[in-house]
Amino acid sequence: MENPPAFAQVLIAWQQNHGRRDLPWQEWSQQRRDPYRIWLAEIMLQQTRVATVIPYYERFLARFPDLAALAAAPVDDVMVLWSGLGYYARARNLHHCARRIVEEHGGAFPLDVDVIAQLPGIGPSTAAAIAAFAFGTRSAILDGNVKRVLCRHFGVAGFPGSHPVEKRLWALARSLLPHQDMDIYTQALMDLGATVCVRKRPACDCCPLRRECVARREERVHELPAPRPKQPLPRRTTSVLLLLHGDRILLEQRPPAGIWGGLLALPEIEATTAPLAAQVAENYDCTVESVEPLAPLRHAFTHFQLEMRPLLCRVVPAGSQVREDRFRWLRLHEADKAALPAAVRKLLRQLARVTV
Ligand code: SF4
Description:
Radius of gyration: 24 Å
Number of domains: 2
Shape: globular
Oligomer: single chain
Bound molecules: iron/sulfur cluster
């Protein structure tokens, strides 16, 4: 294995000339670094591209300029600003985490990477990135992009999500840490994985690590990292109700845990022997005037694929309408601005087109 500082030195030099240095959350002066902003960016960037994150990050900071403002806000306000960014557990954890920092750390972001890693929604890699950027802490990151760079550069075989390979990669990542410029090194690893050593067609000819790269030398770039052993994604099917009264639609707030937790979604209907009209009358205090099935919509989650089968029901609510707080009648144009999952927003836009 090559000398670890050399690996880091090459990357640090490359980052300063070719890396990303003008992202809204990057503050290269140590005096100005705000762990709140760095944490927010790191959470938004999990599973999400930089270009998608930037407008969300800016809107979020305009509404919640500091950790105290976020902790004091109702979680629903946080969900509205996160709406469309996906992986909504991140938003709930962010809010929960802000409150924990206020309650347990007096509102100041903890300095110790192990303490940061224990906070809601922050694993060891994100904790290391926050600590490196905010405090210059010498701690290794190992997200998906970094795993790919290390697997290729050092010729590590096996699926990087498996326990033994991941353990080996953590040890490797720690052995490569420089003794200074941790922020630049950490950013360099991220930038290399995101812009050069990308999943498909990496730009090896402009890679600063090309001379020592095992995958390149052995022509295994497209084999590494090894893919996840094949397992088909399970499929789930659900019938969802588009209960429409004039231009108002009935939405239901999801419980905090589970998919789309805390967001407004469409009521689901279970396959039972009871007639649909009877179920709607029973559960939503509405009389059904007509029912029309719409085209199904598929949505892929990390662990399963969901097929939503929408049933457009034109209804007349009874006087008391639905009794529980979690239900809301919203006009279609208002619903478009509410905290909805992307799949539900898509269905509502389809609905707006068929009902005009
Ligand atoms: S030479 Fe190619 S495969 Fe190797 S680290 Fe660089 S971009 Fe990745």
